[in-house]
């Protein structure tokens, strides 16, 4: 499903709610919330930031208090959560934030919910860009995410391959925004540890609500190899580390994988898909398993460029953060030509 060309009549936004779940993030939460405060300063709307202390056992709460004290202009809500999942913690953050006096009496259609993660840094234009898109009648905005450059070969591979652009197909809880009314209609964040962002976005899009994807709100996230969610960026980079250690991430290797993915996709046509492991096996059958993770990264690059689409059970996903097997195929007609806003 592509971004809708038409948008709906919507009233102007009256306020913004930012939700940031944190679980033992004492080293990262300060930088994240400072960046959120800078973004809040650039919108001429009241901004409520809901920080969820998700079963924290370290000094995250102290770090949050320091940022709150340093930015009294932001309306802060700090909420403890014993949720069993990351999705549950995100949902707790939305509920706590919308109960703030600034938002409690507003029509949900006039409130924008922006989501990020405690190990991420948002640009100062993050909320301003989302507000602009929302005021054009959109109900959902999907942003891009990139890992921090840490000097590793895997990070270099990621950055070299990913050409983040308008109309991308990625879904990241660290960078998405939705009108509160659309969030409610979609049922909110489901209680899942992985894929809660994908499920919410799928529900919004299946509901026929107008949406778009953009690179104008790009968020930088941690390059750590052990993340709070079991199947996110951290695991993806860790697998790239393993592949690089075994084979070496040379430009020649990347080009060979790219060629094989495109060859197989063209041979099968738009009605059929392939597994990244097939391209890996075509390059080196003896190291197929090891190379599969690099092939998956190359497929994500091609998807960012709009050349192929990465799917899971027929639904476009971001292969970097989506757990489980994915398929790769030519971009079907209905996914071509993203809306320009």
Compact description:
The protein is 38% helix and 17% strand. It is built from eleven helices and 13 strands.
Structural write-up:
- The chain has 341 residues and is an alpha/beta fold.
- Helix 1 runs parallel beside helix 2, helix 5 packs across helix 8 and helix 9 (251-268) crosses helix 10.
- It is 38% helix and 17% strand.
- The two termini are 17 Å apart.
- The protein has two domains: 15-221, Spore Coat Polysaccharide Biosynthesis Protein SpsA, Chain A (Alpha-Beta Complex); 250-331, Arc Repressor Mutant, subunit A, CATH 1.10.10.10.
- It is globular.
Topology summary:
Elements: E1 15-22, H1 29-40, E2 47-54, H2 60-70, E3 75-81, H3 86-98, E4 111-115, E5 120-121, H4 126-134, E6 140-142, E7 145-147, H5 153-161, E8 176-179, H6 180-186, H7 196-206, E9 211-213, E10 219-221, H8 233-247, H9 251-268, H10 276-283, H11 288-304, E11 308-312, E12 315-316, E13 327-330
Parallel strand pairs: 1-2, 1-4, 2-3, 6-9, 7-10
Antiparallel strand pairs: 4-8, 5-10, 6-8, 11-12, 11-13
Helix pairs in contact: 1-2, 5-8, 6-7, 8-11, 9-10, 9-11, 10-11
Multimeric organization: single chain
H/E topology pattern: EHEHEHEEHEEHEHHEEHHHHEEE
Number of strands: 13
**Overall number of domains:** 2
**CATH topology grouping of the largest domain:** Spore Coat Polysaccharide Biosynthesis Protein SpsA, Chain A
Task: List low-confidence stretches.
Answer: none
The DSSP helix count reads 11
* CATH class descriptor name of the largest domain: Alpha Beta
Mean pLDDT: 88
Q: Can you say what the CATH homologous superfamily of the largest domain is?
A: Spore Coat Polysaccharide Biosynthesis Protein SpsA, Chain A
